[in-house]
Structures are given as structure tokens and as C-alpha cells.
Amino acid sequence: MDDFDELVSSLTPREDNEAIRSYQNTTAVACPACEQPFDDMVVCKQDLTSLEMDFEMDLCTGIHDDSVILFTHR
Predict the structure, then answer these.
(1) Is 4 helix (H, G, I), strand (E, B) or coil?
(2) Torsion of CA 74, 45, 26, 28, to 10 degrees
């Protein structure tokens, strides 16, 4: 993902802990994978990370600096 820093600068930070870093897409930025607006971006910081989802959603994925990036679509 070549434009990761530019993407992050367009998002609103939400959570940062030892397992994940998450951002909310408050400006309807397009998903790099499907080109549709996404809701949240989650950066997985650890090799193994478990996420608890409150509801069903579509996910797109990417890789940046050996970290898995998830883009959620509600």
C-alpha cells in the first residue's frame, strides 16, 4: 500500500493498543481494495489478533509494513 501515510492523514484515530490501531473514515475516503467508501480501518499490530465484531460486515484487506490492514464495510 504505497499511499498509506496519505490515507491515515485523511482518517480519524479511534483506538490504539498493543494489538490494533483503528481509524474511522469520516470523509468517505475510497477503500484501496474495492474503491467504495469504507467505515473503519484496522491495523493489526501483532501476528495473531482476535477481533470481536458487534455485527456482520464486509471486509477488504491489505498489507503495509508486514501488518494486516482491514477495511470494514457495514
Answers:
(1) helix
(2) -70
* Domain map (residue ranges) of the chain: 4-73
Length of the chain: 74
Is 7 in contact with 41 (CB distance < 8 Å)? yes
d(CA 61, CA 58): 10
Alpha-carbon distance of 64 to 2, in angstroms, equals: 8
Which residues are CB-neighbours of 38 under 8 A, at least 6 positions away? 25, 29, 30, 31, 60, 71, 72, 73
pLDDT in tens, the chain (74 residues): 678 999 999 999 999 999 999 999 999 999 999 999 999 999 999 989 888 888 889 999 999 999 999 999 98
Residue 53: the pLDDT is 80
